[in-house]
Design brief:
This protein is an alpha+beta fold. The chain has twelve helices and twelve strands. It folds into three domains: about 55 residues, Arc Repressor Mutant, subunit A (Orthogonal Bundle), CATH 1.10.10; about 180 residues, Histidine kinase-like ATPase, C-terminal domain (Heat Shock Protein 90, 2-Layer Sandwich); about 90 residues.
Length: about 350
């Protein structure tokens, strides 16, 4: 039976990247079966990828993706984030699509500027990992730690409470210099976004407002400072303007007046959402927004006092703020409706 016509090398390259990311073996056979080509043609494709530096041979018939690594160390004193972006990061990512570069430029400069203005660190390390399919950038400082800085500034009882505040947006320890929007929008623009500081971490995946993960661990030695990890597909369709639009009621000036708050971030371990103090913690700074979407994904139940404080007391004090509960189960919906009924 005659073989299929030759396949475009880019198509085969994308297939090989996916196979290696899935830890697949016997690539030649996989290429033969996927594209109906001869064994010699399959090896020709692999040899071309070897010559391009996209993959490398690790053994007989075994390959791995090649990652280009770049590490930059800077003194924080006198450092300018736009210079670091242009001279360091852009030199590695300059061939990426403009929409992807726009996200990287925004995220990198915002995070590096946070190090300069807030961390109290003497230096910062920027680690760029460039794979054929995606890129990861890690920014690490040895300062006070982002969660500790926020919790101290806002008088929070637990460093984990700082994650909830970050998820809302508009939180900053220096309001004269910052709007508190950088981490909020960065966390929602990248495919993956993680922050680790002290014994607390959180992570978020693009386009999934409920996919926030928070944890507190007690490692043998707490991590000093803050590490931010950002990851993005090199051919992502994400446009930064669209991310801004999702949180603006007026898209003419991208005014940030809408937020989505994952209510589950208020739960720690077996804590149930039952008290008015928990509700007040949830609603801290809600009055800075026009619309607050309360995402109850993963919340199994709430108490009467909690629901009353959120859906009756707060709206009576702040009628200008629209509260929208979403993804509520039957129990949560009953408590919400009960509070709304008593508000009229």
């Amino acid at each position: 039976m005659p073989r299929s016509a030759a396949v475009e090398p880019d198509v085969v390259g994308a297939f090989v990247i996916g196979a290696l990311e899935s830890d697949s073996h016997n690539l030649a056979r996989l290429i033969q079966d996927a594209f109906d080509v001869s064994r010699s043609t399959a090896h020709s494709y692999l040899n071309a990828l070897l010559d391009e530096g996209m993959i490398r041979r690790t053994g007989l018939g075994r390959y791995e993706l090649v990652v280009r690594e770049y590490v930059y160390l800077h003194d924080v004193a006198g450092m300018e984030e736009d210079v670091v972006w242009t001279e360091d990061v852009l030199s590695v990512l300059g061939d990426l699509p403009q929409n992807v570069l726009g996200v990287w430029r925004y995220g990198c400069t915002e995070i590096i500027n946070n190090v300069v203005d807030h961390s109290g660190s003497d230096d910062v390390q920027i680690h760029v990992l460039r794979w054929p399919h995606h890129t990861e950038i890690r920014v690490h400082d040895s300062g006070v730690g982002i969660f500790r800085k926020i919790s101290t500034s806002l008088g929070l009882q637990d460093d984990r409470h700082a994650v909830l505040e970050l998820s809302k947006g508009k939180v900053t320890t220096d309001p004269e210099k910052h709007t508190g929007e950088g981490i909020f929008f960065s966390s929602r623009a990248f495919d993956q976004f993680q922050v680790l500081s002290g014994g607390v971490f959180f992570s978020h995946q693009y386009n999934h407002d409920e996919d926030w993960n928070i944890g507190k661990e007690q490692p043998a030695e707490e991590i000093i400072g803050t590490t931010v990890k950002m990851l993005m597909d090199n051919n992502s369709a994400t446009n930064l303007g669209d991310v801004f639009d999702r949180y603006a009621t007026d898209t003419e000036d991208y005014r940030f007046d809408k937020t989505v708050v994952p209510v589950k971030l208020l739960e720690y371990g077996d804590d149930a959402l039952v008290s008015r103090s928990q509700a007040k913690r949830l609603m801290n700074r809600f009055d800075r927004f026009q619309t607050v979407v309360l995402d109850f994904e993963g919340v199994t139940s709430i108490g009467q006092a909690f629901a009353d404080q959120v859906f009756r007391v707060f709206p009576s004090l702040h009628p200008e703020v629209e509260l929208i509960p979403i993804r509520t189960n039957e129990q949560v919906s009953r408590m919400v409706n009960r509070a709304l009924k008593h508000s009229t």
